[in-house]
Amino acid sequence: MTTMNIQQIFEKYYQPGTPLYNSVWSHSKLVAEKALKLAQVHPELNIDSDFVYEAAMLHDIGVYLTHAPSIYCTGEEPYIRHGIIGAELLRNEGYPKHALVCERHTGTGLTVDDIISQNLPLPHRDMCPISLEEKLVCFADKFYSKSTPDQEKPFDKVRKSVAKYGDASLHRFDEMATLFL
């Protein structure tokens, strides 16, 4: 397996020095740092920290193609699709495991029932994190937004935000919290 050059991949899709680059890169670094700290607290879980770092740094690689002007995204796709867009990009780069993190980190993951009942513009399949590494990146991501990337959200605020998406989403979050906190 070749060593991944995260910055090279990132810069293939993002122009360094732009507000979008700075926003997504900063957000991704904070998510990666939080995920690594949580992994260190739980050596018994045998988490692949190298993979977690790489996946956390690239989990939002697809946002640039979405329409979210408040975070400098001027694409045409709905923001909810950034995970599957990123997954496609990383599969094309030769990183299928990293692609799964992109695809499965939205919210606390999305079930096919979530997608159908909310009429989301996504493929009709389960996209919930499965591996510990996928769950860890998904969990760490909930504590940072791209609109205020330097501020970690308090646990209670994150939990309240997740609860807006229903009991199943909150249950998945609570399961991840039990694993990693």
Automatic annotation (TrEMBL):
PANTHER family: BIS(5'-NUCLEOSYL)-TETRAPHOSPHATASE, SYMMETRICAL (PTHR35795:SF1), SLR1885 PROTEIN (PTHR35795). This is HD/PDEase domain-containing protein. It comes from Barnesiella intestinihominis YIT 11860. Signal peptide: none annotated. It comes from the Bacteria. Pfam families: HD (PF01966). SMART domains: HDc. Residues 20-155 form the HD/PDEase domain.
